[in-house]
Request: fold
Amino acid sequence: MKPGALVSLVGQNVVRSKKNFLMSGFGIIVGISTFVFFIGLGEGIKNVVLGRIFLAGQVEVVRKKFDTGLTESDSLFGIGGTRPLDAQVARELSAIEGVTGVFPKMKFAFPARGWGGKRLFGRDVWAEIIADGLEPEVVATEIEQPEQFRDWDADIACGDGAACPDGRTCQAGKCERQACTYVDPKDEEAAPATPPACPGESYCAEDTGRCETPIPVLVSNNLLELYNGSLATAMSGGAGKMPRLSKQAVIGFGLNVTFGKSFLGQSKKAKPITRRLKLVGFSDKAISVGVTLPIGYVKRLNAQFAGEEAAATYHSIILEAADQGRVPAIATKVKAMGFDLADKTERAEQAGMLINVITLVFSLISVIIVAIAAVNISHTFFMIILQRKREIGVLRAIGASRGDVRLLILGEATLIGLFGGGLGALAGWGATRAADLLGGRLPDFPYKPETFFAFPAWLWGAAVGFAVLFCVVGAFFPANAAARLQPAEALTN
Reply:
C-alpha cells in the first residue's frame, strides 16, 4: 500500500470512529496534562531553591571542621587540621577538572558596627556589621553598573582621558586624595556654615584628613526578600511601621561604619576608623546576611585590625562548575584533598535530590494514568477490529499485506497519540496558568517567585512522545491480531 493511500485511510478511519477514540483518548489527555503540570512545578521550584536560595552550580570550599561535642574547630585540640585556605590552595583547586572559576571569599576578622537609613526608615538604625569580600570581576555580569563595584583605594591610573573619582586629583598618573578639613557631622552649629570640604559623594575622613570615596558594597537578593517578608514587621515595633523596599529604592543607600569597634568589643591592634559604605547592587554571590565589599578592602582592613595572617587567609573559596552535572565529581575531589564543603553547598545537594525525588513520584503517577489509558485504547481497538473484520478481509483480498494492516492500526493509534498528547500538554499548561493566578493572590513571603512553574524545551516533545508511545503500545496487540486475519475467514465468518 502506498504511503499516501495509507495516511488517507488512517484519517478516514479515525474520523469515522471519533467518538470511540475520543473516549479512549481521554485518559491520555488527563495523564499528559498532569505530567506537564508536575514536571513544570518541579522545574519551577528547582529554579527558586537551587537558583536563588542555593547556588547549585557552585561548590563552596571551607576548612574541615572537627566537632568536639561542645565546639567546632579547624584542628583537633590544636593538633593537625587542614591547611589554611590561601592563594596556593586556590591555585590547586583551579586545576580540578570541570572547574571554570575560583573565587576566594574573605570575612571581616575584627568587630564593626554601622548606622544609617534615616532617608529610608525615618530614623537611623544601628547594627553589627557582618561582611565579606569578593573579587569585583566575579559579579560583573550580575549588577547594572559593574564599574561602581571596584576597589577605589587601590592605585587608580589617570590621564589619557581617564578621569579620577570625586575628591581626587591626577598626580603623576595616579589619582591622589585631596586634603580636606574634617567637620564633625554631629556639630549642628558648624556643619551648616561650613561649605562641603570634598566634592560630590566624597567625604572628609577624620583620621586621614583627606577626601575618601564611599566603599561600594553589594547585598544578597535573599536579604531584601527576608527584610520585606518578615524583618520589616519585626523591626516596626512601637517606633512606626518600617516600609517595604524595592531594589530601585535602596540602590545608592549610604551607611556609616566604624571598623575596629562594635557593640561586642574593640580591636586591640589599631584605633577604630569610620568610613561610609554605598550600596551599588545585588548579587547571588554576596553574603546571605550582611554586605559584600571588593576583597581588596577586606584584606587591608584585616591586616590593620587583625594582623597579616588574617589578611592572607580566606574563609572559603567558591568553585564555579562548567555545568551542574560536574558538581558531584568536584565535591568528591575537594574532600579527597582534605577540605570540606560549606553547609550551603551540602544543603543544595540535598535540596536538589529531594526535589528530583518528589517530581519523579508525581511523574510516575502521570505515567500510570497514561498506562491505564493505553489499556483502554487496547480494548477499544480490539472492539473496532471486530467491527471492521469484513473490511480487513476485503483489504487482504485485494492485495494488502499483513504489514499494511498492522501499519493501518498503528497509524490510527499514532494519530490519537498526537492529538491526545497535544491537547494534554495544552491542558497542563492552562492548569499552570490558573495555579499562578491563584498563587499571585497569596500574601508576599520570602523568595516568592513571579511564577511557580518552568518549562524546559524538552518537556513538550516528551509529553507528545509519551502519548504516542503508549498509544502505539496499547494498539500493538490488536494490530497483530488484525494482521493475522485470513481473507477467507474474515469474509465468511
Remarks:
- The longest strand covers residues 273-282.
